[in-house]
Amino acid sequence: xxxxxxxxxxxxxxGLGNDFLVLLDMANTISLERQEIVALLNRRTGIGAxxxxxxxxxxxxxxxxxxxxxYNSDGSRAxxxxxxxxxxxxxxxxxxxxxxxxxxxxxDAGAIEIESHSALGDPVAxxxxxxxxxxxxxxxxxxxxxxxxxxxxxxxxxxxxxxxxKQLMSKEELGLLEISELGPKIESEYSGGMNVEWIxxxxxxREVTLRVWERGAGVTQxxxxxxxxxxxxxxxxxxVEETVVVHNPGGDLTVQVTAKQCYLTGPAQKVCEVTITSxxxxxxxxxxx
Length: 289
Fold this sequence. Notes:
By secondary structure, the protein is an alpha+beta fold. It has two domains: 7-130 and 268-287, Diaminopimelate Epimerase, Chain A, domain 1; 135-260, Diaminopimelate Epimerase, Chain A, domain 1. Helix content is 20%, strand content 42%. The protein is built from six helices and 17 strands. It has helices at residues 34-41, 82-94, 171-176, 179-187, 224-236, 278-287; strands at residues 7-15, 18-24, 51-56, 66-72, 77-78, 103-107, 110-116, 124-130, 135-144, 147-155, 159-165, 195-201, 207-214, 218-219, 243-248, 251-257, 262-277. The chain has an eight-stranded mixed barrel, surrounded by four helices. Strand 9 and strand 10 (147-155) form a beta hairpin. The chain is globular. The two termini are 17 Å apart.
């Protein structure tokens, strides 16, 4: 629990509507319990966001500038977020905690390479992330709500199931799918949960349209790891080229697939800074059932 008399200084950012609270705690003096995280992320009685990112110092032997600990809106821990780590990078740069130029951040999925393409203080920063090399573990054909899909399990530091319809599906039909109902049903089949992406590769082989159910957060406006995993799968199946524009509901991300790893490029936008007192946080927790 946050000690009485202490304050939390949080910044809020989003990557294409996938929003995060960032807590810079380089001295590692703050410990939040699960109910406090859930309370902060509640959109009605808290500040509201898809996730909370706690930023602490790395171990002395690490070359990275900071360590990222990511929590979903239900309080569960997540390994990585492509949108979240861009938001974290923007927070570090704006606070002058890191210099402009390339650097790395330690995550539960390993060290992640970062490069900013924007000037200090830009409200919307364009940031590239080295996402590593995804690993495909299983490919099958499965039927979901009467539709046959190529279903590909892929790991990119966190688990994903990429669904590509076998038959022709329009973007309008994709938009009508009841992701909020289908997502949790599919996720419940997997121990530890699962991120689920429905994608339609474009005939021009340079674009993909995506909708996503995120483990621990539900339906979100964008997913960086999901966009990367989906582009990698579509490229491996010969459906898209090496560079892909992924149309998320909240906007576009670009994924480049190389022989060594995938690179994700997209925006991070700072929304505001918020100071929360310990008493305010206690009152938020009291409202969470």
